[in-house]
Amino acid sequence: MPTSLGAAARAGAIRPATASPRRGLAGATGDHGRSTTHSRGVGGSGAGHTPPPARPPADVDLAPGSGPCRTPNGRLRLCREEKGWSQERLAVELRRFAVLHEGREAGVTGNMICKWEKGDKKPSLRYQRLLRALFHRSSAELGFIEDDPMTGMAAIGIPSAFPSILDGVESLAGNLLSGAPGNLVDAIAPRVLGTDEATELRGIPAEGREFLRVVAAGGGAVPVAAVVTTAAGASDEPPWDRLSAALRQRSPATPELAHQLSQHTAGLFGLEERVPARTLMGRVTRHLATLAQLLESTTRTPARRQLASTAGETAALAGWLAFDLGDNASALAYYRVAIEAAREADDPALWACVLGYESYQPGGVGRHDQACALLAEAQRRLGASASPLTRAWLAAREAEEQAARGDGRAAMAALDRAQESFDKAEPSDRVWTGFFDRGRLDGLRVTTFTRLRRPTAAYAAATEALRAAGPAATKKRSLLLGDIADVHLARRDIDAACRFAADALAVVAQTDFSLGFARVQRVRERLVPWQSSQPVRDLDEQLRVLA
């Protein structure tokens, strides 16, 4: 195997020390609690001398010898990225939040956030409290303490305040259903935010205050959200039905709030690249419930149109996650309501995105004609001017499906259109295009040439794809490595084919990505003539562990 192709892959390959069953994999990389707490000693002072009160430090040094050093706080980073915020943006939000809720400034900077996430320092107790209130997460969910070893509650997304929240929900949900007075959100918000933080909600504008209360009530745990929904009289509706009903009603939302919700959706799309679908699905459906609740009472204004578009994007993401989890019926239901949202928002690019996602279902089971029809309709809906990156992705998808049909002329024409649109595109012009970079385009070229049985062109495209792709263990990398394994198999380089397939499985072990797993399985089917060789036997062992 030429050095340029193998060395580039080995630089980014990630192999787990042990593999776990594929559908029971842990969450995202770094999704673990901090295992050690640290304290500072207090020096003595002269007799009768009272030292002046010291300003609480922003963070605490993790001194050598006091426990493991530089344990990255992946959970804090995950919560930040879910919001779509940079480290500097989180620092700005935290300073604003401190003034609003404490009446005093905070000296946090983006560099401090970076140190907290890298594990160089740990936030002080004040900043831990502010971060808990800002994100509506427990200390364990933010990586400040380790999970409860007996219950594992934090590991499954249930905050430490959950029992007291249930007390408030159970006592007041009955009042709401029976018509008795009582405010469910006011009762449980102090349990989520803390008494001081809940009291300070009075200083926020009405629309923002109500939204924060909704998030406080529903954002902590799935069971709580379910009880709140029951009190509202919509407990038996699946998420897509509730959104569909909401799209036909009205709600008060400001453009600023709509923009914040759109940023949250963008953050969820960013997380999808590396977080397993099973881990992310709950966050997406909770966000979708918030959007539906706002749409239920918003009039037809520009803010409602933006809300409808954001809700459609979120429903499309939920559909993609459901497809990754093997729940095709739910995926199609989410796609249908996402198209309904696209129709209301007059958003043809969103409609095209949904059809592009839907094309993976028939394509994955060999119905390539149906996949091509969906992709053709998607490109027709999109038109010639909107979202060049979406147009490039759809054309590249069509190329690999046309190649599977054996239509080389149509496949090459689609690749040419994809390249032309990609060259004109701006980075990430819509939330769903963040994954589609040069490396992903080259990866689709590899698939197309491999399916057309053009090994020389496929090998050249694979070399470019590895050069363009980063080393991160993302879902699209598992597809690329699986395709490159196919390229080496076509060249009868069995050792290299098995090595790249194993590297793809290592990424699948971290991301639990069904498409990546299926891609390796197809490579294994073509390895039958060499199944007695040691490289193939080793690959079989990895497949057995993950299957």
Compose a concise summary of this entry.
The chain has 547 residues and is an all-alpha fold. Helix content is 64%, strand content 1%. The chain has helices spanning 3-12, 74-82, 87-102, 110-118, 125-135, 162-178, 184-193, 195-200, 206-218, 222-231, 239-246, 255-272, 277-295, 302-324, 328-345, 348-358, 360-364, 368-382, 388-405, 408-424, 438-451, 455-468, 475-490, 494-511, 514-526, 534-546; strands spanning 59-61, 121-123.
Describe the SSE topology:
Blueprint: H1 3-12, E1 59-61, H2 74-82, H3 87-102, H4 110-118, E2 121-123, H5 125-135, H6 162-178, H7 184-193, H8 195-200, H9 206-218, H10 222-231, H11 239-246, H12 255-272, H13 277-295, H14 302-324, H15 328-345, H16 348-358, H17 360-364, H18 368-382, H19 388-405, H20 408-424, H21 438-451, H22 455-468, H23 475-490, H24 494-511, H25 514-526, H26 534-546
Helix pairs in contact: 1-22, 2-12, 3-4, 6-7, 6-10, 7-9, 11-13, 11-15, 12-13, 12-14, 13-14, 14-15, 14-16, 15-16, 16-18, 18-19, 19-20, 19-21, 20-21, 21-22, 21-23, 22-23, 23-24, 23-25, 24-25, 24-26
